[in-house]
Amino acid sequence: MALKTPSTFLSPLFLPKQYTLSIFNPVSLNIYRKPTPLSCKSTHSHSPSQLPLSDTKLLSSEPEGTGAASPTRGDRFLERQQADEAAKLLIKEIKKTKKKTKKVLKVNTATACCYGCGAPLQTSEVDAPGFVDMDTYELKKKHHQLRTILCGRCRLLSHGHMITAVGGNGGYSGGKQFVSADELREKLFHLRYEKALIVKLVDIVDFNGSFLSRVRDLAGANPIILVVTKVDLLPKGTDFNCVGDWVVEAITKKKLNVLSVHLTSSKSLVGIAGVASEIQKEKKGRDVYILGSANVGKSAFISALLKMMAQRDPAAAAAQKYKPIQSAVPGTTLGPIQIDPFLGGGKLYDTPGVHLHHRQAAVVHSEDLPILAPQSRLRGQSFPVSSKNGMVGKFNSDGLNGFSIFWGGLVRIDVLKVLPETCLTFYGPKKLPIHAVPTHEADEFYKKELGVLLTPPTGKDRAGEWRGLETVQQLQINFEDAERPASDVAISGLGWITIEPRRESLGISESNFSETTKQLDIVVHVPKPVEIFVRPSIPVGKAGAEWYQYRELTEKEEEIRPKWYF
What angle, 0 to 180 degrees and rounded to 10, lies between the N-to-C axes of helices 272-282 and 298-309? Predict the structure, then answer.
């Protein structure tokens, strides 16, 4: 039988059984392509004619062999092709195995969270967020359904229980404190390094207190859509054209560059369709993060957004089944909650609220928090009260001068020097009572009635723990036109007080004051560290549309000014 070529011995098809391709490394395999000429040197020179016939055949560059067993050129070509294909298949199998291994690791290392609040699931602490009983956890884990679990705290919140979990700087006194406000804030720092679309929410009732003026520290250079929530709470007859212009003027002064401004109501779905359209237009494959201060209405907004998107997007309709829990308790959401409402890529995230230490909610007891949340349309309460015959009650011809007005137990305003017809109108929660007493009796009245007439704090026990109205700020408010409101005094986390220099319905003669008086002096007392803001008056009610004036804009301002939608 003729000798086989070297390619025959190197072919995978002719390897011994113990060296099959299942354990063969294709990277180190040098597949035979072409016979290499062999040459031998010897000290004795021989001519080709002197060599034996067998040696001459071995030195041939292309040994042919003789007989039927000799491989042809076609056989060697087929052997090389088969070896190449086998090596390629083996490399593909190795790559697939590596990919499968990586995917399994990602699933195993992921932390399962409650879909209602975003807290990591746990089975040890019953009162802590994220708790679920062991049997339920094991059953859901077995069927790969951990993302469908609602923790015990969320179940209680959904039934109206007031359970706080956030303490520390900006957290809430009383109740249980399992996580600090600073820890929640740290969960948002990664946004500045990611490419994302930020939807920032602001509460119209607490516009200044919930604005997050340093939002760029969290959002970085990412584009921002500004959404103003709870506009359905504004007084009846409000012209939203005026309110929209007022909001844009406010953010222009804060030098915050935004794509657009939307006035919305999660309850009535007003303006939600415009936000959904803007998100689809601007997200461009990026993830979308809903950002805002605590209790600004992020979870309610997401529910309304999913409801609106579900009309056209089946992915959003499916995402509605496991949406974040809604509650009146600030700090309901304790971790990022991932939602998949988009068919074209990108995810939606509900984020923990940014807890601000300067809001009223950070100083009152956890059980008094519902009092601070308006549940129905605002109606301004004015002092002094006017009638057809003039002022009603204890006020004389000097108006509010020499009086102190208490807004619950949270705010005290001492009127030092105003016009006789000056009127103060309070916009905020209806459950906060308003009482006016002479300033020289104010200290004794507050000490006696705190926790009784002046609430919150509610009850004498909490009143005994109350630190009082430690922050005192004197305000000098200038005005040009006495027929228009001079300004608003906004109390962070509560509402605002509109100061009108002159209200004609009070029926006081104009001769009682000097026309040269263009300044109003008041003193505001609030708990520490609640902040006080003096701002241009927001045009609410039917009267707002009458006195509000639109500012004339230059062409450059028109170009860079964000548009607002309602």
Answer: 80
* Closest to 306 in 3D by CA, of 345, 347, 341, 266: 341
The Cα–Cα gap between 480 and 478 comes to 7
Q: Give the Cα separation of 533 and 492 in Å (integer).
A: 8
Fold of 181-357: Rossmann fold (3.40.50)
Interatomic CA distance for residues 296 and 201, integer angstroms:
7
CA 439, CA 297: separation in Å to the nearest integer? 38
pLDDT at 10: 44
Ordered alpha helix ranges (H), 483-547: 541-547
Token pair in block for residue 563: 């548009």
On the question of pLDDT at 42 being above 50, the answer is no
Task: Provide CB contacts within 8 A for 185, sequence distance 6+.
Answer: 218, 354, 355
Other CB atoms within a 10 A radius of the CB of residue 454 amount to 24
Token couple for 241: 């054209």
Q: Are the beta carbons of 299 and 333 closer than 8 angstroms?
A: yes
Q: Which residue has the tokens 């098809």?
A: 13
Q: Where in the chain is the domain with CATH 3.40.50.300?
A: 181-357
Q: Which residues contact 560 (CB under 8 A, 6 or more apart)?
A: none
**Type of residue numbered 456:** P
State the DSSP H helix or E strand holding residue 549, giving kind and residue range, or none if neither.
none
Q: For all residues of the chain together, what is the average pLDDT?
A: 81
Number of residues in the chain: 566
**Predicted TM-score of the model (pTM):** 0.75
